[in-house]
Amino acid sequence: MSTGKTxxxxxxxxxxxxxxxxxxxxxxxxxxxxxxxxxxxxxxLTTQPDLAILDVMMEQSDxxxxxxxxxxxxxxxxxxxxxxxxxxxxxxxFQGVSPDMKSWMRADVIVNKPVRPEQxxxxxxRLLREEPVTKH
Length: 136
Hints:
This protein has a single domain, classed as Response regulator (Rossmann fold), CATH 3.40.50.2300. The protein is globular, with a radius of gyration of 14 Å. A five-stranded parallel sheet has the order 2-1-3-4-5, with helices on both faces. Helix 1 links the parallel strand 1 and strand 2 (30-34). Helix 2 (37-44) runs parallel beside helix 3. It is 40% helix and 18% strand. Mean pLDDT is 85; it is low at 87-94. The chain is of the alpha/beta class. It has six helices and five strands.
């Protein structure tokens, strides 16, 4: 179980916010959600998240990248997971992106949508340096 760390969860699709909340909240994470770049930037004025999960394409096609840059400027050590459906829509893949490119994108991890619950939990735990939960 988590120690109550705060995760900023940003996506313009309310279904994605609901799905990820249903996966992360029961694990003890405190979620701060936003449905747009502007909402997320407003949240960052009052919240310092331990981790951020950001949709790449929202009201602008690069909104997630813009938000990641803003977040890393304010809180350089905050891990960022970028969620993208670009691969499904365009057949372009972020897999195997060079470290230089990830550095430019300001992402620690890029995950393709749809994301499996166990995949997002594993990435969150890894980036927060938490022990994986083992089933007995």
